[in-house]
Amino acid sequence: MADYRGVHVIHDAPAAMRDGVVLRADIYRPESEGAFPVLLQRTPYNKRFAQSAVYQHPAWYARQGYIVAVQDVRGRFASDGDFVPYLHEAEDGYDSIGWAASLPGSSGKVGTYGFSYAGACQILAAACSPSNLAATAIGMAGTSFNDGWTYRGGALQLAFILSWTIQALAPPQAIRSGQDRLMERLRELGANLNDAYRRPLGSWIDSGELPAFFEDWVRQEGAGEYWERLSRPMPSGKPVPNLYIGGWYDIFLSGTLAAYSASAHSLTRGRSPEQRLVVGPWQHVPWASLNGSVSYGSSGNNNADSLQLSWFDKHLKGKSQTEAQSPVSYFLMGANEWRRCEQWPPEGARTTEYFLRSDGRANSLSGTGTLSEIAPVSEPPDLYVYDPSEPVPSVGGASCCRADVAPVGAFDQRHVEIRNDVLVYTSPVLDKDVDVVGPVELVIFAATDAPDTDWTAKLVDVHPDGKAINICDGIIRARFRNPAEPPSNIEPGQIYEYRIDLGATANRFLRGHAIRLEVSSSNFPAYDVNDNTGATITSRNPNKVRIATQAVFHDAERCSRLRLSLLGPAKSETTTTKQ
């Protein structure tokens, strides 16, 4: 029997939704007398866990003077109904907030918390403007379930979507329906994820191995009505204080920043109460100072519980804060310290362009690729061969969720950079610290002899000993090069301009380090492999893979360039050194 000293616990408390479906929650209530605000978490991962991988147990929050309700979402574990990701969370969240406000001993004020899918549940519910919602603490989630969640730059976020479905979403469904044989198959798939990643995506369709919603996701490439129906913007009605928590290596970082920016924009127009953004040096889970192979020191430890308690004390209890809080707090990696500012990106940040340069031999660490603030005049393009059957492996980065199969976080990239199908461009050794804080974008002029292909990019921090630590990365699928237009294949041999969003970061490139860019055409299994044929991801034929010759241009008319957001004085170049 668990010791909930000072806390009264009720398991499986029912809440009827507007259509009669009953959802169930575990409720943790202080044993002392009084009326208390309610903290509500809605999760698909079993309310008994209460996302304790990153948060303190609900009993801890109850001891701080809150009623805590952790609810299984529709169709999961103790709750009735059918689970379809995202579909019912807006209305169910609205109804559950009203239910939580009416609990015995409630003050009538409700705050919500949770990360990942539980963060998305908050965003969807808040879009309906529940009258009793007083504040949110949204961890690592965004407002779009297409780009930045299921896809990125037109490419499927394979490692995340497939492992999430096989290991987290599908098994409870199989258990609920009594499909023992399917459950055995899911265990087998989960134990052999590398093989699952290499299966043609079309082979999952109608296989009976994965839920129908996974099949919908891989059929729905690009924007469209399907995704619009699932995603909702932040509320246009009653706004509430929102605390957004993100991580520099989180797969949903772009969604977190976009959600905060939308809320902060409302604030500047006088429509919104306090909005806060906190971004630490963390991956999706766990939130810790040790991220991959890099430790960011004690200041990088998980501080979510103290953040949330202070936030809810202010907005649900009316407690004054002992210290003034800036709207934005971010962890500056490299310096390993927290910084505060009034907006994101920080005031004073300026975009600086670093041009890709070489004599046509930027292939691998042995090549001649450099990054320079001086634009090229006349240089030959860099060529490489992209073979989809031998993709560049993912070594760290902002993926999820099986780190033992596809490493997540910060790692040395030299085993990637020795490949000739990876172009490597390195700056001169820095003679002063350079703080890169804000969005990162690569603009490249490139051609291929295929009707479709991928272009990948990675920002890397090169240490004096040669160690090359990945900072952020991105991808663009050629046929999705124009996000505002329907996807279309390219003309082989034609040069196109591509803009690759590498996300955002806050990293100090220390004096004696160098800034590096990697360019290639695959990053597997973080993203699905493009077979270069122009086929959709569900219609590819594994026996018809096309090998492509890729060209990246950097000359006076086609200046491929890395765009970084810098704080502080501009750097000066010294002797070019390949590290």
What is this entry, summarized?
The protein has 579 residues and is of the alpha+beta class.
Q: How would you characterize this protein structure?
A:
The protein has 579 residues and is α+β, with helices and mostly antiparallel strands. The protein has 3 domains: 7-147 and 229-341, Alpha/Beta hydrolase fold, catalytic domain (Rossmann fold, 3-Layer(aba) Sandwich), CATH 3.40.50; 155-220, no CATH class; 350-567, Sandwich (Jelly Rolls), CATH 2.60.120. Helices cover 20% and strands 30% of the residues. It has 11 helices and 25 strands. The strands form 5 sheets. The chain has a 10-stranded mixed beta sheet with strand order 1-2-4-3-5-6-9-10-13-14, with helices on both faces. α2 (89-101) packs across α3. The chain starts with 6 loop residues before the first strand and ends in a 12-residue tail after the last strand. The model is unreliable at 569-579 (pLDDT under 50).
SSE layout and pairing:
Elements: E1 7-16, E2 22-30, E3 36-43, H1 58-63, E4 67-72, H2 89-101, E5 106-115, H3 117-126, E6 133-139, E7 151-152, E8 155-156, H4 158-176, H5 180-191, H6 193-198, H7 212-219, H8 225-230, E9 242-249, H9 253-268, E10 275-283, E11 290-291, E12 294-295, H10 304-317, E13 328-332, E14 337-341, E15 350-357, E16 370-372, E17 382-386, H11 414-417, E18 423-426, E19 434-448, E20 454-462, E21 468-477, E22 496-509, E23 514-520, E24 548-553, E25 561-567
Parallel strand pairs: 3-4, 3-5, 5-6, 6-9, 9-10, 10-13
Antiparallel strand pairs: 1-2, 2-4, 7-8, 11-12, 13-14, 15-16, 15-25, 17-24, 18-23, 19-22, 19-24, 19-25, 20-21, 20-23
Helix pairs in contact: 2-3, 4-5
